[in-house]
Design brief:
Strands 1, 2, 3, 4, 5, 6, 7, 8 and 9 form a 9-stranded antiparallel sheet that branches. It is built from 1 helix and 9 strands. The protein has one helix at 39-48; strands spanning 2-7, 12-17, 20-25, 28-37, 55-62, 71-75, 82-84, 87-97, 103-110. It is 9% helix and 57% strand. The relative contact order is 0.23. The chain has one domain (2-110).
Length: 111
């Protein structure tokens, strides 16, 4: 199991295993993805203006190209949770984190 999140300073995806960052990569894919976002930390970031890692994707690393049918996944500090077309998403069958900083998913689990 790995956690993936965007590292703003390095402009790379950080890969965390067992609570420790083990790599910084340009792109990575995950399967059986659970999207995690701490609401308490999100509100603290908005209040203090200090950003930290409080939202990430957890899953098993896979090697597969993003299919044409994948949809764009968004996370914004101003809104709680990860979103696809305005709906909060908590899981996906697969996710792709691209070199340009975008994230894409398929097999969406919507709240």
């Amino acid at each position: 199991m790995a956690d993936v999140y965007w590292h703003r300073g390095r402009r790379l995806w950080s890969v965390r295993e067992g609570g420790r960052v083990v790599a910084h990569v340009e792109a990575i894919g995950l399967r059986d993805v659970v999207l995690r976002a701490s609401e308490k930390a999100r509100i603290r970031c908005m209040r203090t203006g200090v950003k930290d890692v409080h939202a990430w994707a957890a899953g098993s690393v896979m090697k597969a190209l993003r299919p044409a049918g994948a949809v764009r996944l968004l996370y914004r500090l101003a809104e709680p949770g990860f979103r696809v077309d305005g709906a909060v998403v908590i899981a996906a069958a697969a996710a792709w984190f691209e070199a340009d900083g975008t994230a894409w998913i398929e097999g969406v689990g919507v709240v």
